[in-house]
Amino acid sequence: MAKIKLDLHPIFNRGAQIEQELERVIDEAERKRIQTVEIIPGKGSGQLKKRVLRFLDRKDIKARYHRIDKDRKNHGRLFVYFRFKGK
Asked: Any bridge partners for residue 80, and if so which?
């Protein structure tokens, strides 16, 4: 199973770039029909994770993926799953 990984540590304080990277990774997953995207906002205070979850909860973005899982063992990771119809 193919997976894309996006680590947000290097750009944690650049708001517009964070959204661009999230948008880019979702576009890439759809284009390449990749089923899982791992987003690593880091453990920290949780502000970056909240920002990522707000982005993923937007109506236009939410329509593009199937579901989100928060890693139980490592609260600094999110998994976004995609479901594609047909081959």
From this structure: 37, 68
